[in-house]
From TrEMBL:
<dbReference type="GO" id="GO:0006612">
    <property type="term" value="P:protein targeting to membrane"/>
</dbReference>
<dbReference type="InterPro" id="IPR039859">
    <property type="entry name" value="PFA4/ZDH16/20/ERF2-like"/>
</dbReference>
<keyword id="KW-1133">Transmembrane helix</keyword>
<keyword id="KW-0472">Membrane</keyword>
<keyword id="KW-0812">Transmembrane</keyword>
<feature type="transmembrane region" description="Helical">
    <location>
        <begin position="42"/>
        <end position="64"/>
    </location>
</feature>
<dbReference type="GO" id="GO:0019706">
    <property type="term" value="F:protein-cysteine S-palmitoyltransferase activity"/>
</dbReference>
<feature type="transmembrane region" description="Helical">
    <location>
        <begin position="178"/>
        <end position="203"/>
    </location>
</feature>
<keyword id="KW-0449">Lipoprotein</keyword>
<dbReference type="Pfam" id="PF01529">
    <property type="entry name" value="DHHC"/>
</dbReference>
<feature type="domain" description="Palmitoyltransferase DHHC">
    <location>
        <begin position="97"/>
        <end position="215"/>
    </location>
</feature>
<keyword id="KW-0808">Transferase</keyword>
<dbReference type="GO" id="GO:0005783">
    <property type="term" value="C:endoplasmic reticulum"/>
</dbReference>
<dbReference type="GO" id="GO:0005794">
    <property type="term" value="C:Golgi apparatus"/>
</dbReference>
<dbReference type="InterPro" id="IPR001594">
    <property type="entry name" value="Palmitoyltrfase_DHHC"/>
</dbReference>
<protein>
    <recommendedName>
        <fullName>Palmitoyltransferase</fullName>
        <ecNumber>2.3.1.225</ecNumber>
    </recommendedName>
</protein>
<feature type="transmembrane region" description="Helical">
    <location>
        <begin position="6"/>
        <end position="30"/>
    </location>
</feature>
Length: 265
């Protein structure tokens, strides 16, 4: 068997991201950008700040990519004992959801077919990180997007500062072709990061997930509801997402919302 058959996709993706990050940074230092000019003039504060931001975004990427997104811990145990224990945790008004792999699922959890695990408050599986985004790493994922966007926009400005358009075009391409390709790549990445950050901030503000937003018509606990049963208002949604306050299970919140709806009718 070939040696590369033992290398997991996650290792390939994370290595590729790391190489691409430092490769783009190196291109900005090697060309006549403001970053290089600051360095040559001995003004090291801004270059060091840029490098620290790049390093911070890379560390956040690895943290989100490698951490447990909120996997459900499924341990073999007698069926009757499992049923009684899990049923006791679910309010009677809550619709039961079952997974062929993980038995009874809590609300907002979903089985990821790429990770082969059920994830609490499942948002999506991110191929760029080769990991799910779920209950435990979603706040860090949003923080990573914000920091990454800052780095990309600054790098985009630095790349543009080093571009000098002149003729003949063949000579220009040899001297600035790599920097121009980097500029185009940074433009693409900045657009994607900006759209992702905006969409996730909207989802966080309304206390919903990407999966729930896209597939609400197919989710049992959402398809018969005219509004989001988990939305507590902007301030409380943000406080719960980033700080875990106020605490409480999604089942309890759903049951309370269902009871309020029944009383209103």
């Amino acid at each position: 068997m070939a040696p590369w058959a033992f290398i997991s996709p996650g290792v390939v993706v994370r290595t590729g991201h790391t190489v691409l990050t430092w490769g783009i940074t190196l291109v900005l230092f090697l060309h006549d950008t403001e970053l290089r000019q600051w360095e040559e003039q001995g003004e090291l504060l801004l270059p060091l700040t840029f490098l620290l931001l790049v390093l911070g975004s890379l560390l956040l990427y690895l943290a989100v990519s490698l951490m447990d997104p909120g996997y459900m811990n499924v341990q073999p145990q007698p069926q009757e004992e499992l049923k009684e224990e899990q049923m006791a945790m679910v309010p009677q008004a809550t619709p039961l959801r079952r997974c062929r792999y993980c038995l009874v699922l809590p609300l907002r959890a979903r089985h990821c077919h790429e990770c082969h695990r059920c994830v609490r408050r499942y948002d999506h599986h991110c191929p760029w990180m080769e990991n799910c985004v779920g209950e435990r790493n979603h706040p860090l994922f949003v923080a990573y997007l914000a920091l990454q966007l800052v780095v990309l926009l600054w790098a985009l400005y630095l790349a543009w500062s080093g571009l000098r358009f002149f003729q003949p075009w063949g000579l220009w391409l040899r001297s600035s072709g790599l920097l121009f390709a980097t500029f185009l790549l940074l433009s693409l990445f900045s657009s994607v990061a900006g759209l992702l950050l905006a969409s996730h901030l909207y989802l966080v503000a309304s206390n919903t997930t990407t999966w729930e937003f896209i597939s609400s018509h197919r989710i049992a606990y959402l398809r018969q509801r005219s509004s989001n049963p988990f939305d507590r208002g902007l301030i409380r949604n943000l406080a719960h997402f980033f700080c875990g306050w106020p605490s409480g299970s999604w089942e309890t919140l759903w049951a309370e919302e269902e009871e309020d709806s029944s009383q209103a009718v």
